[in-house]
Amino acid sequence: MLLDSKVAVISGAAGVRGIGYATAKLFAEQGAKVVILDLDEAASQAAAATLPGAGHLGLACDVTDAAACRRAADAVLARHGRIDVLINNAGITQPVKTMEIDAASWDRILDVNLRGVLQLSQAFIPQFRKQGGGAIACMSSVSAQRGGGIFGGPHYSAAKAGVLGLAKAMARELGPDNVRVNCVTPGLIETDITGGKLTDAMRADILKGIPLNRLGQARDVASAYLFLASDLSSYITGGVIDVNGGMLIH
Ligand code: NAD
Description:
Layout: E1 7-11, H1 19-29, E2 33-38, H2 41-49, E3 57-60, H3 66-80, E4 85-88, H4 103-131, E5 134-139, H5 142-146, H6 154-174, E6 179-186, H7 200-207, H8 218-229, E7 240-243
Parallel strand pairs: 1-2, 1-4, 2-3, 4-5, 5-6, 6-7
Helix pairs in contact: 1-8, 3-4, 4-6
Bound molecules: nicotinamide-adenine-dinucleotide.
């Protein structure tokens, strides 16, 4: 198993149709003790209870709240005494145009998608350093690379592009501590993030631009996270893995 007895913390993983939960499930199948962080404690606990194997945990953690991130880290360390993998997956989107972005929307989208990655990483970095290593993987998006995905506005593209810069800089800084930091950049993945707005006509149109001729599934992204979390990627840091079916080849 690729993550035997590793402690893996995954943010935004309580929704059972989401990428975070698919990752939690795959990691548990690979022997990890998984900690699910999400906004709602009961939902996090319920999701953790469905994972295969024992020793999983579900906690409430709003990644925009630095104190909540530190509390989550304290709870993980109290329970397991270590962390091996952090998956910064939590995110939100808003399908609007440039002129529709007001200050509150900008703050909301940047806070969850970008500030959250920084704050949750900061909560665990001291422990990674103490242990002498670990792996962090961060959620960006094709939206950051091609100037918009399908469901994200320009502020979402900016936040996800910010994640790439933040993760690469953390990779450079934390390399000497043997902490690897990488990103995934998914294309359109079928989860609840589309908010039921994906019509059949839109789907057919989108598929014309995807060489693999299908939309992504949460498990497709979970597999990329697994690679980055495991020793299979032991010499990879500051990397970006496209999980987009060929939607963007560059
Ligand atoms: P999702 O809505 O199922 O998952 C997002 C999760 O994040 C939810 O469980 C939500 O409760 C949680 N969350 C939201 N705000 C939070 C906060 N402040 N603190 C903690 N958790 C919070 O959607 P998904 O598609 O699985 O999205 C997962 C990640 O993948 C997001 O970062 C998203 O931007 C990114 N992404 C998705 C796609 C796609 O097409 N689905 C493509 C590229 C990137």
